[in-house]
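[job 0417] fold request received: UPF0145 protein GCM10022211_08700
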Amino acid sequence: MIITTTSTLEGRPVRDYLGLVGGEVIVGANVVKDVLASISDFFGGRSGAYESSIQEARAQAMQEMEVSARRLGADAILAVDFDYEVIGKQGSMLMVCVCGTAVKLS
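[job 0417] inference complete; emitting structure tokens
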């Protein structure tokens, strides 16, 4: 499955637009809270533990999106967009959303 942030694929015209597909994942309770509590440390350097949690959440959201596209018979997902949102009481969780347009290529 081709997944891209672009709205077209060079040399691969779209035959059918099958609809919007997406995936959402919420990263558990203390990840964002800990990041926000130690914001000065966070900007002073990289936090491998938090980065890997966010990367895993993004990968899971993309996987959900791809499953939805396959159910529609898609060959590709175009115009993919990622969104990250702090949610929950006192910003205790991070929601990762990804969406795009499922298409059948010619």
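[job 0417] notes: The longest strand covers residues 14-27. The chain has a mean pLDDT of 86.
[job 0417] exit 0
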